[in-house]
Amino acid sequence: MVSQPSHSYGPSKNLFVSRKASGDSIIIGGTGEDNARWIRVLSYRAAQMLWFNLAELLYPEKSKRITGLITTAPLRGADLPTITTHTAVDKTDDGDFEVTGWAGSQSWVIRLNAEEVQRFWSALDAVLTPIEWSGQ
Hints:
A four-stranded mixed β-sheet has the order 1-8-7-6. It has a single domain (7-128), classed as Secreted effector protein pipB2 fold (2-Layer Sandwich). The mean pLDDT is 83. It is globular. It has helices at residues 44-58, 63-67, 114-128; strands at 7-11, 13-19, 25-31, 37-43, 83-84, 86-91, 97-103, 106-112. The chain is an alpha/beta fold.
């Protein structure tokens, strides 16, 4: 989607997802190329859109049912340069996944293999969905 992202973390692993204490932002991070650690702050809505997009790619037969389980969050202004407000996911020709995020005029991209994208979606799922759902 983005020809030249501002930050390319490359193939990433050891991903984590947590909710900020205020509850209006989600923190994601992991280890990219050369074992360099990275962290990004996502608006709650950007995290939801990432969860929705991954659900459609990973679970196409269940995605309509599972994406209806959570209500969408309101949009957040794109004028906050450090908070990712939009995300997109593309499946690459070799079966990996590229996640792109936009924070103000900056963009970032990570690449996930099939195993890491499953773990990442599960971590997002645990933070964003009701306890009674928990990925079933």
